Amino acid sequence: MSIISIKKFDQARLKKQAGFTLIEVLVALIVVSFGIVSVIQVTSQHVSNISELEKRMLASWVASNHIAEIRHNAKVERIRSRSDTERFDMGGHTWRSRARLHETEVEKVFLLTVEVSFDGDPEKTIYANMTSAVTDGLP
Question: What is the pTM of this model?
Answer without folding.
Answer: 0.66
